[in-house]
Structures are given as structure tokens and as C-alpha cells.
């Protein structure tokens, strides 16, 4: 069993007697992209600042890279919180050379991180000529200098256009394999998270109400196969014999509950074989956003 890259136990934090975190527990696997989800004001940014040692928890324990956050070697963690501050009059290489000097890294490190974020050809361009997506990739390059084992990102795609969002998403998704870097990313853009994360944690009311791999979360989402037929009663009887659970909506429509996508040909074949006329079959599986909104309503 690998030690979690981040391990938070019963962490609490209040501001002026107002509790924000109320016994937070987080376990982030190594080599994962962990999406930390929650509505605005739930405490995502507070949690990130605690993980970086910028805020201290009132109680509980926080371990990052197997050490108490107070003893953490900050050079092993890269981070982007809030909007990155870039010096527009410098070139990308000049900008990264500042961090290289501070961290006492080799000159080859600049070339490595520029290649990692696909900015090698733009390295000698002034930052003022960069698109928003390129600026965010440059900020990621800076955070990746020194080859950190953990990257912590707070809403990294905020304000980007679709092309910029895709660029950042693809980069984040590849980091665990390309550079052996685990990524902890907070977001409320659930459709983006769904395309890049391997694990998810949902923050509500100061606590983590759900934590799982995305693969396991998908298995918890109830899918449906809506069928328009000549007789929903006859179709329900046929499918019951075949082992499927159904709910009739109208005399000519019914839903097959929680089928896997690969079962659709079997369902339709059963109906046709028994003489049930099938006019339409529509498969629906909730997106992560729909599932999150549903879980919010259930927990309200």
C-alpha cells in the first residue's frame, strides 16, 4: 500500500469564529490527478493554502509527501494559486531564469520545462505576445521547475477560452506519466474535471462528503436506456424474463434501469425476437456535473 501523496485527517479551520473546515479528511494517491470539487465559499482555497503551509489548521493533521506540512521541503511542491503574476516585458526563458536562479537549478531545466508544456518554440518571445493559454502554460512550467513530486493548482482554467482550457487539461492529464508528478487541482468546472482527473473529492459543509476514483464514481451513476415501443407493458414482460429491470413511463415508452452500454444490442434483440416493435432507443449516463448537482440536492 503506497503512502498517500497528501493525507489530511480531521483538519479544522475557522476565521473570526466562523468555521470553514469541520473535520476534513483527504487521501490523495500517488501519480494521480485528484480533482477537489466544491461550490464557491466551501473552503477549497483555504484547504490549498493549508496544504502549502500558508495557513495553519486549528486542529487535525496534514501530511504532504509523507511529512507533516510544517517540515515539508517546499522545493518538492509546485503550485499555482490565484492568477499567476508574469513579467510581460521578459521573454519566457528570461522569466524562468529567475526561478532557476532562486532554486539554484541547472540551465537545462528551462529547456526541460518549456518542452514539457510545449513552449520550446516560444521561449524567446516576450510574454506580452502570449495568449492566455500560453501564459497559463508558462506558469505551469515555472511551477514544474525542479521536478516537484506534487503540483497544487487552484482553478487553473479560470478565464481561458476553450482552446486554452484544452491545452491546460491535456497537459495536466499527462503529468503523472510524463514526469511522475501527482496533481491536486481544485475546480468547479466539472466538465473539465471529467476530462482530466483520475480521482475526485467533493467538499460540502466543511467536510469531504465523497472521495473515490473517477472510475468508481462512474459505477455509482445510474444509467438508463429509454425505449419507445409499440407496447411498454409487453416490452417490460419480455425484458423481465431476460433479467432486466424496467420502469414504464407511458403505454409506449419505458426505461431499462442501469444497463451498461454494451448491453444495448442484447436489449433490442430480445424485443425484436419477441415481436415488440422498437421505434427508438436512447442511452443516457449522467455526466460528472449532473451527478455532482444531484449529490448536492441529496445532501442539502
TrEMBL record:
The keyword Nucleotide-binding applies. Residues 6-230 form the ABC transporter domain. GO terms for molecular function: ATP binding; ATP hydrolysis activity. The keyword ATP-binding applies. Keywords: ATP-binding, Nucleotide-binding, Transport. PANTHER family: ABC TRANSPORTER, ATP-BINDING PROTEIN. This is ATP-binding cassette domain-containing protein. The lineage of its organism: Bacteria, Pseudomonadati, Pseudomonadota, Gammaproteobacteria, Alteromonadales.
Amino acid at each position: 500500500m503506497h503512502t498517500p501523496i497528501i493525507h489530511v485527517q480531521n483538519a479544522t479551520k475557522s476565521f473570526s469564529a466562523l468555521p470553514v473546515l469541520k473535520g476534513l479528511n483527504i487521501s490523495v494517491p500517488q501519480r494521480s490527478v485528484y480533482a477537489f470539487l466544491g461550490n464557491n465559499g466551501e473552503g477549497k482555497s483555504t484547504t490549498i493554502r493549508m496544504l502549502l503551509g500558508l495557513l495553519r489548521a486549528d486542529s487535525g493533521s496534514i501530511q504532504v509527501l509523507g511529512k507533516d506540512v510544517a517540515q515539508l521541503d517546499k522545493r518538492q511542491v509546485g503550485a499555482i494559486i490565484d492568477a499567476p503574476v508574469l513579467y510581460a516585458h521578459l521573454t519566457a526563458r528570461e522569466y524562468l531564469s529567475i526561478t532557476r536562479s532562486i532554486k539554484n537549478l541547472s540551465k537545462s531545466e528551462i529547456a526541460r520545462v518549456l518542452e514539457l508544456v510545449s513552449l520550446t518554440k516560444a521561449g524567446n518571445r516576450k510574454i506580452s505576445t502570449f495568449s492566455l493559454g500560453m501564459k497559463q502554460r508558462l506558469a505551469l512550467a515555472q511551477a514544474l521547475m525542479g521536478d516537484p513530486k506534487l503540483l497544487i493548482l487552484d482553478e487553473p482554467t479560470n478565464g481561458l477560452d476553450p482552446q486554452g482550457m484544452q491545452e491546460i487539461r491535456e497537459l495536466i492529464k499527462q503529468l503523472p506519466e510524463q514526469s511522475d508528478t501527482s496533481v491536486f487541482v481544485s475546480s468547479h468546472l466539472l466538465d473539465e474535471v471529467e476530462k482530466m482527473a483520475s480521482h475526485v473529492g467533493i467538499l460540502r459543509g466543511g467536510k469531504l462528503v465523497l472521495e473515490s476514483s473517477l472510475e468508481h464514481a462512474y459505477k455509482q451513476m445510474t444509467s438508463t436506456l429509454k425505449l419507445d415501443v409499440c407496447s411498454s407493458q409487453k416490452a417490460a414482460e419480455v425484458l423481465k424474463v431476460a433479467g432486466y429491470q424496467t420502469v414504464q413511463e407511458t403505454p409506449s415508452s419505458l426505461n431499462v434501469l442501469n444497463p451498461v452500454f454494451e448491453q444495448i444490442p442484447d436489449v433490442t434483440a430480445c424485443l425484436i425476437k419477441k415481436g415488440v416493435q422498437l421505434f427508438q432507443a436512447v442511452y443516457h449516463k449522467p455526466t460528472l456535473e449532473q451527478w455532482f448537482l444531484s449529490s448536492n440536492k441529496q445532501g442539502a
